[in-house]
Amino acid sequence: MSSRILIVDDLVPNLNLLEVKLAAEYYDVVRATNGLDALKIARSENVDLILLDAIMPGLNGFETCAQLKTDPATWHIPVVMVTALEETRNRIRGLEAGADDFVTKPIDEFNLMARVRSLLRLKMVTDQLMSHTTDSAPSRDLIDHLSRKRGNVLIVDDQQNSAARIENVLGDSHNITAQNDPKEAIIAATRNVDLLIVSLTSEAFDGLRLCARLRSDPRTQDLPILAITEMADEDIMVRAYDTGINDTVMRPIEAGELQARVNTQLKRKFYADSLRDDFHENLEMVISDPLTGLGNRRFFDRSVGPLLEGVTYGRTFSLVVFDVDHFKRVNDILGHDVGDDVLKEIAARLVTNMRAIDIVSRYGGEEFLIAMPGATADEATAAADRIRGLISGTPIFIDGAALKVSVSAGIAEAQKGEKVREIFKRADDALYAAKKAGRDQVMQSQVKVAA
């Protein structure tokens, strides 16, 4: 599916020209002739990027951009301001309104498309992250927080005076370090850096090659890069965008424009980071047991699938079901807080005494389930009995008091053609037999399934 681009201009000939250029690159184009219509479309339709004319009657482009960037529903959509105004103050005004980039008229097609591709790549990454979170849009408080957050900025420039000027502009708002050696810069970029500012005019190293190297490294492939170029280096700038940089700033560097571009890149970086954190937190909540930190039932069911598939090809694994003996009595007499402490200690002993390849989970209540890849029933029984003896032979100390706890276990070796629930049923039946025989022991399922 092609990316959808909203073009906004009050002059129909300008809209026609842009639509032809974009359609030739197979983009899906939506049009608006004023700021109010642009806001409605951005809020109600799936838009990937907005090309926004700065000078329009009524709600002009600067005001439209400001509203887009303060609305949690549209804040993440990249905006490129398109204008005939070339003064630096107008670029700064647009950037401060939240624009991600600026293109001046008459439009250079190669320059425009390079910027469009760069911003669409960024939008795609953001969309992927948003699809894994519970909230579809950031809150206004989050946007405000990200706007005020200090970033760690690494400057890569062989001209000390240039690096010093950049540090002077950004130093009050962000943490700045400088590097003139590209090899050292690559190492430094992997260490808690939020934005890289790279000179493409360096005589000591190839800035484009450095950017390409950073984009090919998984550790830095998403790190925002702001490239410094000369005003006349249009070809280098286009190549830089194709390499994967996020933005450019021209020499001589204007302080307000630099600050605005840096803040825009950092805000996007921090938002992407917050989405990743939310994703990992949500994933952790989905697959982890909050009490013991072990995988939960869902985690186990997902993890054991490949093991079950391996049985078809002659590999084996065994299932061990552990259950804490007389656990209800612990809860009833000593309270649920003590019961929770017992479960956490049992979980810790299971994890520290099983192999790294074993899948250990809390399956529910006082029941723990372990899948042992490559282990026969006899091998799993020996391992389970060793842990059973360790648990029953070593008291659990809670608030200075020694508590003797035992566990029982049932074992079942996976057979070809079985489903997980069938293996579990056999292991659970063996556990029931161990409980019935007096607890604090391990029993093995003797049922054989026909191949």
Task: Provide the descriptors you would attach to this structure in a database record.
49% helix, single chain, Alpha-Beta Plaits, five-stranded parallel sheet, 16 helices, alpha/beta, Rossmann fold, 451 residues
Shape designation: elongated
Question: Count of DSSP E strands?
Answer: 17
| Number of helices, where a helix is a run of at least 4 consecutive DSSP H or I residues | 16
How many structural domains? 3
User: For the terminal residues, how far apart are their CA atoms?
Assistant: 47 Å
The CATH topology of the largest domain comes to: Alpha-Beta Plaits
C-alpha Rg (nearest Å): 30 Å
- β-strand percent reads 15-25%
Fraction of helical residues: 40-55%
Q: What would you note in describing this structure?
A:
The protein is of the alpha/beta class. It has 3 domains: 1-130, Response regulator (Rossmann fold), CATH 3.40.50.2300; 132-278, Rossmann fold, CATH 3.40.50.2300; 297-444, Reverse transcriptase/Diguanylate cyclase domain (Alpha-Beta Plaits). Helix content is 49%, strand content 19%. The chain is built from 16 helices and 17 strands. It has helices spanning 12-24, 35-44, 61-70, 88-96, 109-130, 140-148, 160-170, 182-189, 207-216, 234-243, 255-287, 297-312, 327-334, 336-353, 377-393, 420-436, and strands at residues 4-8, 28-32, 49-53, 79-83, 101-104, 152-156, 175-179, 195-199, 225-230, 247-251, 317-324, 359-364, 367-373, 396-398, 401-403, 407-413, 442-444. The chain has a 5-stranded parallel sheet with strand order 2-1-3-4-5, sandwiched between helices. It has a 5-stranded parallel sheet with strand order 7-6-8-9-10, with helices on both faces. It has a 5-stranded mixed sheet with strand order 12-13-11-16-17, sandwiched between helices. β6 (152-156), α7 (160-170) and β7 (175-179) form a beta-alpha-beta unit. The longest helix is centred in the middle third of the chain and has 33 residues, at 255-287. The two termini are 47 Å apart. The model has no long low-confidence stretch (mean pLDDT 88).
